[in-house]
Amino acid sequence: xxxxxxxxxxxxxxxxxxxxxxxxxxxxxxxxxxxxxxxxxxxxxxxxxxxxxxxxxxxxxxxxxxxxxxxxxxxxxxxxxxxxxxxxxxxxxxxxxxxxxxxxxxxxxxxxxxxxxxxxxxxxxxxxx
Length: 129
Fold this sequence. Notes:
By secondary structure, the chain is α+β, with helices and mostly antiparallel strands. It is built from two helices and seven strands; from the N terminus they run αβαββββββ. The protein has helices at 15-25, 44-55, and strands at residues 30-34, 59-61, 75-80, 89-93, 96-100, 102-103, 110-111. A five-stranded antiparallel β-sheet has the order 2-1-3-4-5. A two-stranded antiparallel ribbon has the order 6-7. The longest helix has 12 residues, at 44-55. It starts with 14 loop residues before the first helix and ends in an 18-residue tail after the last strand.
C-alpha cells in the first residue's frame, strides 16, 4: 500500500477538499465507487465489464487515511455513505489524492453519480430499478 500524505486545510484548499475532510471530521463513513468508462471499439463493453469486475464493489472509507488503499489512477465517486448522490470524484495517483468534478464533453455541465450516462450504451444506470 502506498502512503498518502495529506496537506492541512489552508487558504489554497479547494472547497471540495474541505467538504470531503469535513465528512470524516463529522464521523461519517465515506464511499468511493470506481468509475468505469466504456471506450470505443467492438469489445469496449466487454473490456469495461472486465475492469469493473477487477475493481470490485465500492470501497468503504472509515478514515481519510484509507484513501491510500484506492487503486492507483482510477477515478471514483466519493460521498458520505448516508447520501445517495455526489459530483465529487477522487483519484489516487501514487501518494497524492486529488478531487475534482467530471464535466459533460458537449454541454460542460457537471456530471453527478446519478447522471444517466449508461443508457446510450445499453447498460442500466447506477442503483436504478
